[in-house]
Amino acid sequence: MSTEVRVFPEKQKNGAGAIRELIDASFKAFSEWDQSKSGDIDWIKRMRYNQTIVSRMGVEIQVSGRSDLLARDIVHIRNGLQDSYIDIGVIVVPSDDFEYYLTDRVANFSYAVRYVEKELREAQTYPIIIIAIEHDGTSSTPIEKKRTNRGRG
């Protein structure tokens, strides 16, 4: 799976919500990924061997929104694990460099690791992987920030 993202090389000039939409579109392009309802794990893949499900992976995408939403993502994964809905959780965050160019106060890789190691230490007992993603280079125009209902008026 590949999603090309080129950023305008200035601090906080690229809309994180639009980048999230690009990532979601890439997941949707593959039929083996199921999108969960709002308030649950973002994406789930059931890995099969000879028609038998051998593992279920849940993915939380944390590239837009506030950094404190990382705790909610960990709770979603914990609940999915406890309910035997998934076997492993993956949290996707922007790299420290990538996050510098995004408008939202999103958790970057360093923050996410520090949060799990220092703030929510119980998460270290869960099968969770934190993955950092990077942008693919620069662009001469910023990625437009999504406008919410509050920002339109």
From TrEMBL:
Transmembrane residue ranges: none
GO biological process: DNA restriction-modification system
Any one GO molecular-function label of the UniProt entry: magnesium ion binding
Highest taxon of the lineage: Bacteria
InterPro entries per the UniProt record, alphabetical: BamHI/BglII/BstY (IPR011338), BglII-like (IPR015278), Restrct_endonuc-II-like (IPR011335)
Pfam families: Endonuc-BglII
Protein's UniProt name: Restriction endonuclease
Lineage: Bacteria, Pseudomonadati, Thermodesulfobacteriota, Syntrophorhabdia, Syntrophorhabdales
